[in-house]
Amino acid sequence: MLTLDMKRETKNQRADTVNSVLSYIYLHIDSDLNVNELASLNHLSPHHLHRIFKEETGRNLYETIKSIRLQKAASLLLTNKYATISQIARMCGYSSQTSFIKAFKERFQTTPKIWRNGAYLTYSKKIIESSKSASESLRDFSGTIPKIIRTAPIRAAYIRHNGYDISIKNSWNRLYAWSLENRIGENARQIGFHHDNPTITPLSECAYIAAIEIDKEIHPHGTVACFEIPASLCAVFHISGKYGDVLRFMQYAYLIWLPYSGFEAKTLPPYAIYRNNHFLNETGEFDLEFYLPITVL
Q1: Distance (Å, whole) CA 47 – CA 64
Q2: Which end of the chain has less neighbouring CB within 10 Å, N or C?
Q3: Which is more confident, 34 or 119?
Q4: Is the confidence at residue 6, as pLDDT, over 70?
Q5: 64-130: in CATH 1.10.10.60
Q6: What is the pLDDT confidence band of residue 3, given thresholds at 50, 70 and 90?
């Protein structure tokens, strides 16, 4: 009979596997991701990996990879205006432009070309309107100019959160409690990691990570996992406001600033380093630096 400790350890091992797989997918979305390779990296059979992934996330592994590829492509089509559709397809792991166009049309009900030429505006407007706080925000970030820096890697403990809404508070509270238990210093940087562009991804489908910087001596396990944010050239925006303003800012950064900046976005996800975390304070106000990985045109 399995004891409570044995069951908890099994749960933690499965969480470690899912975290490892998702981290690998997001960091290598531009490559030909092979499920057999993912299984081998985690010392599992493909069948066992599929079963664990489905039971832990409620999602099919193949469909998850496909969804991540298409969300990345939809964002890059807007931010990387000088890249061809074929180049965008390759950046998101598609070897065939034909298969990419077919998959994109199934997901967004339009072709990549029509999307790039303006169809994204209606899509984005519906998403903003679906968020009461964002639709009520009157913030205008026009003219906000970032500084360009080369970042250093950051080692962090994290909790994954599905959806971009106020329920992210729950994940931040759990992570903060974990940090207190493990005596993480009060000055450790708190980081919000955006795997998806929430201005063109239905908010319920956005993948978000609540993270906190840790030393190399700390080794999280289970639902609190560990990863390294890679070094990158980044555009860094310093912004402040209240809950709801972040989506308005991301609209500006992705749809207005980036396409005409002389830079293009990488497939690496952006992240926010909080000076004042609105998911942990009582005011709902934030002060943060938003790091957008870029490359020079």
Answers
A1: 16
A2: N
A3: 119
A4: no
A5: yes
A6: low
Phi, psi angles (nearest 5°) of residue 30 = -85, 0
Could you give the CA distance from residue 234 to residue 268 in angstroms, rounded to a whole number? 10
Write out the chain in H/E/C secondary structure: CCCHHHHHHHHHHHHHHHHHHHHHHHHCCCCCCCHHHHHHHCCCCHHHHHHHHHHHHCCCHHHHHHHHHHHHHHHHHHHCCCCCHHHHHHHCCCCCHHHHHHHHHHHHCCCHHHHHHHHHHHHHHHHHHHCHHHHHCCCCCCCCCCEEEECCCEEEEEEEEECCCCCHHHHHHHHHHHHHHCCCCCCCCEEEEECCCCCCCCHHHCEEEEEEECCCCCCCCCCCEEEEECCCEEEEEEEEEECCHHHHHHHHHHHHHHHHCCEEECCCCCEEEEEECCCCCCCCEEEEEEEEEEEEC
Judge contact between 271 and 291, C-beta under 8 A.
Answer: yes
Q: Which residues contact 124 (CB under 8 A, 6 or more apart)?
A: 199, 200, 251, 255
- What pTM, to 2 d.p., does this model score? 0.88
Q: Is 3.30.300.180 the CATH number for 147-296? A: no
Bridge-partner residues for 229, per DSSP?
154
pLDDT in tens, 201-220: 999 989 999 999 999 888 88
The residue type found at 251 is Q
Tokens of 145: 């100019």
